[in-house]
Amino acid sequence: MEFKTLFPILKKHLSDGYGVPDFMRDLIAMITEVPEDEWTTSKDPSEERRDSTLRSYAKRGLPQKMAQAIVYRLNPDNMVASIESRDGTQLQLLADDLIGYDPEINSCNVAEKVTDWMVEIIQRSAGLVQQDELSRQKEEKLAADLKAKYGDYLLRESNGYCPNCGRELQPSESGKVVKVFEVSLIDKTGGVDLNNLIAMCPQCHATYLLDDNKKLCKELKAKKKTLMAHKQSVRLLDDLPLERGITEVVVRIKKLKEKDLVDATLEPQELHKKLDRTKDLTLYLTVNSYVTTYYVRIREIMVNLDKSKVIDYDEVQDQMKALYRRLKKANKSKIEVFTEMSDKIHRVTLQEELFCQIVVSYFIEKCEVF
Hints:
Largest sheet: 2 strands, antiparallel
Strand order of the largest sheet: 1-2
Shape: elongated
Number of helices: 17
Structural class: mainly alpha
Radius of gyration: 27 Å
Number of strands: 4
Distance between the termini: 62 Å
Strand content: under 5%
């Protein structure tokens, strides 16, 4: 099915009287989460120019740049639901006009059929080569085998989110957690190896199967490396205890107001010895800001909680030092140490990571870290 063939039929039955440009906007918005400003419709921001560009798509089909901009962020379920929301008469008339292109189409499946055509049109317009039936069946069999063997591990490694588009891979539906993901080979010329596998949402997986984009392959390899490094760090720190009372420390930090901090600033004394601004400028600026603003009050919180026996302050310091030494021994960079220690506190306290980073910054100035 060609877009210039499908579009006028859809407009006839689904446009509700809108003109070509407005219906084009509605149609694309049905199937992608990408806003119009990112469709690369026209460099001219005027509405008249944009409308003219959208009219041209109806006659000549979707341009490659536009298709490439949206192909990895398609939402077929949304399009199906949008079409199915029309009344039965509309759906039947739409199916009647499309039956010549698919004899099995009817009012019950017309939404899915149209959506499948739209996905294929966008993929083809983006330059992705469609598979023949035999190749598709082989890919589906391989994906099923990889998911059965490596799926649960890769799902945990990705922390439940697609590393390509960010979609949730374990959404909750009607009170039940469902696993909505596939396992993809990163380098499709490489073998089946855990280092060459990644969990992706079904839409990104299906699109990537058709895509030979070397740049995207390189990006996925980099993301896989990051995921593996984080997984290794989690394992490194899992067996090290962390004072449960640290939760109360973080909670009290969250409750601090501006008036509590105004007269409690501190000029960091040790930080410049720990972090080289020429190598770790972003980390230096982050930690410096946190220490300057929060250090005095955190020290007060720690001392008071120690006196009331909510925490053992000496124990907390020893634990922070142990976390740091374990990561340093594993040759983690300073930014990785900072990130993974903050993540460890986050996993124990279930508090926002920003406040956990403030705690780590305190211990950097205290010399337990770096």
